[in-house]
Specification:
Layout lengths: L4 E6 L5 H11 L3 E4 L13 H10 L3 E4 L7 H8 L3 H11 L3 H15 L3 E6 L8 H12 L4 E3 L6
Parallel strand pairs: 1-4, 1-5, 2-3, 2-4
């Protein structure tokens, strides 16, 4: 079993091929979609197309919607209220579904697979995926690498 590794990536300002290339370069084995709604108007980023795209690269796909930001948190993020988004997401992470799916994610990372969290925002400091990564790190010692695909 290899040492655990955790990555994050956002697809804002990037094409699907650029994101897939970045995942492949990093040796990601499992892409965990942490969007509450795994749909996108951006080509290649809706759940089924994304799962098919990563599968072509030998990468598995898992959608953990319980680790996504609730609608009011997404609205706060869109309006630049990152503090409000973080507060709303912290409250959400106390729900049974979120706690259960965080445990599932921790187990996947512990297994030694190279796991990458995916969401929309390009910069992790503006995205809840950084909070999710930090919550994983509270439970297991794992380095986190924030990937960034080439912009459009």
């Amino acid at each position: 079993m290899s040492a655990p590794a955790l990555f994050t990536i956002g697809y804002e300002q990037a094409s699907a091929p650029a994101v897939l290339d970045e995942l492949s370069r990093a040796g990601v084995e499992l892409l965990v979609d942490v969007r509450a709604v795994a749909a996108s108007r951006r080509a290649g980023f809706s759940k089924s197309l994304l799962a098919a795209g990563v599968a072509e690269r030998g990468i598995s796909y898992l959608h953990l919607r319980g680790l996504g930001t609730p609608a009011e948190g997404r609205q706060a993020a869109r309006s630049g209220q990152h503090g409000a988004m973080q507060r709303i997401f912290a409250e959400h992470m106390q729900t049974p579904t979120a706690r259960e799916q965080l445990g599932e994610l921790v187990d996947l990372v512990k297994s030694g697979r190279r796991v990458c969290l995916l969401c929309f925002e390009r910069h992790p400091e503006h995205c809840h995926r950084l909070i999710v990564a930090n919550l994983v790190c509270e439970q297991i010692e794992v380095p986190v690498t924030h990937l960034m695909a080439s912009p459009l």
